[in-house]
Amino acid sequence: MILTNQDVFELTAFRRKLHQHPEISNEEEKTAKEVVSFLADSRPDQVLTGLGGHGVAAVYDSGEAGPTVMFRSELDALPIHELTGVEHSSLVPGKSHMCGHDGHTAILAALGRLFGRERPGRGRIVLMFQPAEETGDGAAGVVADPRFGEIAPDFAFSLHNLPGVPFGEVRLKDGVVNCASRGMRIVLEGMTAHSSMPETGISPMLAVSELMPALPGLGRGTFGDDDFCMITVTHASMGEAVFGVAPGRAEVRATLRTRRDDNMASLCAAAEGLVARTAAAHQLSCEIDYHEIFVASVNAPEAVEHLRRALDEEGVRHNEEALPMRASEDFGLFGHSAKSAMFFLGAGERHPALHNPDYDFPDDLIQIGARVFMRAARNLLG
């Protein structure tokens, strides 16, 4: 079963409509409604909405015993002002689909159209349109939703477009493909003073200057090592933007990154200990909290083999180059309860990079992604 020319035309229009009306993480209410509306003609056997926020799951059930196979895409856009100049540019200032989630959603919509015409031979297909991928909130919210148990998959698959890789080629391997990461927010509190008498206050200035190099210094190993970990300082601020006040408060933000989940706890402990000692040495109080928590994405060998077979049967070139990646991806949590795998679909060697304001998802990838996913689904479920 293949997409018709009319299908491709309508899927492209759907993708571009999503592109024009982006919604960032945890705000994807209208995007979710657009997905439900587009899938209506395919008559899913079950549609769950509001999953883990604004997530949508469409189920196509054969009525016969068999595994549940989930395909996942993302709904959210980014807080980036678009500079592509294309006719379907974002109509929302400061927000845009600069990661291609609109295209990934169109690929799953293509599967919905095909399974609407012919259900799988056995088992169930679940199309999971996940919210809040960019913040790391989405997968956790979906999995924590009690209704997720109704559709819990045996296999879970996903893809992400990847600029820098030749158009239409795939990168795929088993094991770790994306690192675990989390954002660490550090608040240091002392006491403000008049800038003419800084000695009467307690400034966080020296503590901040020590933490800036010391936090990255906790990293170890090279990226090829399983125990690799790194810390990147991403932000620092201190006091108010004035001349008459010596600061009494500062904030430092850093991203902690590990290749394996089991190394994250030790890296957090080391960073927290460093912050506590530094704060105490300068008579400061400190608070630490975490944001944008991503677990490592680890491809299960059995799931990878199903994708490799599908790629080979569809004539799509693939290799393991550029994997794993330091970047994080909010898909790994699904692999804690299912055999999961994600592949990376080339957007072109010279295509603008993800999260750049001149990026736009290549529409011709919709058919390629849908073909591979459809082949994998039919091989698994008939």
Fold and architecture overview:
The radius of gyration is 23 Å and the shape is elongated. The protein is built from eight helices and 16 strands. It is an alpha/beta fold. The protein has helices at residues 5-20, 29-39, 101-117, 138-144, 205-214, 264-281, 301-313, 365-381, and strands at 46-51, 55-61, 68-74, 124-130, 155-163, 170-171, 175-178, 180-189, 193-194, 229-238, 245-246, 249-258, 285-294, 297-299, 318-319, 339-348.
Write a concise keyword list for the protein shown above:
single chain, 382 residues, alpha/beta, Aminopeptidase, Alpha-Beta Plaits, 2 domains, eight-stranded mixed sheet, four-stranded antiparallel sheet, 8 helices, elongated
Write out the strand line-up for the largest beta sheet, numbering strands in chain order: 1-2-4-3-5-16-6-15
Shape: elongated
How many alpha or pi helices?
8
> What is the CATH superfamily of the largest domain?
Zn peptidases
Q: SSE order in H/E notation?
A: HHEEEHEHEEEEEHEEEHEEHEEH
Give the CATH level 1 class of the largest domain: Alpha Beta
GO molecular function: hydrolase activity; metal ion binding
Keywords: Hydrolase, Manganese, Metal-binding
Binding site for Mn(2+): 99, 101, 134, 160, 355
Protein name: Amidohydrolase
